[in-house]
Amino acid sequence: MAEKLLIVDDEADTLKLVSMMLQRQGYAVATAKNGIIALEKVKTEKPDLILLDVMMPDMDGYEVARRLRADPKTERIPIIMFTAKTQVEDKITGLDAGADVYLTKPTQPRELFAQVKAVLARTKKIQAAVSTASLGKRGVTIGILAAKGGMGVSTIALNLGVVLYNQTRKTVIVAELRPGYGGISLRLGYPDPNGMKRLLQGRPNEINAKAIDLAMITHKTGVQFLLASPHPRDAVLLDKVEHIKKIVEELPYRSRYVVLDLGAALPAATQAVLPLCDETVILVEPSPGSTHQSRDLAKDLVDLGVHKSHIHMVLVNRVRSSVQLNWAQVQKDLGYKISTVFTPAPELAYQAAAAHQPMVLHQPGSITTQQFEKLAALVTQRPKNR
After folding, report:
1. 33-69-16 Cα angle (round to 5)
2. For residue range 344-384, what is the model confidence (pLDDT) as tens digits?
3. Which single residue of 7, 150, 249, 297 has CA 20 to 30 Å from 332?
4. How far is residue 107's CA from residue 290's CA, in Å, rounded to a whole number?
5. pTM of the predicted model, to two decimals?
6. Do residues 277 and 176 both lie within one domain?
7. What is the dihedral of CA 67, 69, 70, 72, to 10 degrees?
């Protein structure tokens, strides 16, 4: 059965043209010439996706989106806003109102078709995840952190998530739990993600499966991302400990694997969620200061209830230097076995970031990719003991 689209626009010519183009792509199409009619047609037509104009009389597209998101019967229908309003503030308003994608007119037909196809595919994956979750199965949660900033926690979390998906073809969620420090969002080309921010600004009891599904982005890699804001001012949301804990409690029921970007040190929110992790990865640099801090961090994790056997030390060599400690000395100083060693790859990191690609996809056969594959095997080889 063809997927059904509802096109909402007050311009008759636009309705006719867009309807004809999408019908030729194999979609069933319904139309509405204003927001009030659109809300009625959603009830009768039950569309798989809504293509929504903003500038309409009586009720604009922003209000239509808000009403759809406020109704439990329609809150999960994906919305593409398709409008001539091109200012950044307009786009932010649209996304805040509940749009999944914001396209500006004029748009090339190929881009419109690609966005429709991508949003529908993403929705199917979310529905599949919800179906799996309804069986009550809990996935594996992997926390990534370091004793200090600048160690590459976001890079490790992003690429580990992609490798896990490629190896297993199971659902994978990568979640940034550091509002105000959203490094993954910028690496993937999402300068202003608002999914995590919306969850943290609401009430804790509003955080549920549906709210989390709506907050996530399904990337072209197949991985779902819950992205933190990269805007420094949003770091105030780090104190939303109850919110963050509830998100982490819910995530493993949405996915087979959950990778948490926990950032640096042990703020209150990180302390609250670490006992929920099945495996914890600590990133270490081969220097005396880093090994000392990482050893203390591991002790703190054990005090928080993390079992020592579920803590993995990963050595990250970010620069080529002959004055750094070798892995054997780091291992001795830590009192932990080094599970994996990442060799320096600054050129690959730069090129991948410039292309908005994970490193493991930018150069699939590289040594770096092999190192990520080893880490993925490490954190998935042991059955959960919970």
Report:
1. 20
2. 898 999 999 888 889 999 888 899 999 999 999 988 876 54
3. 150
4. 50
5. 0.67
6. yes
7. 120
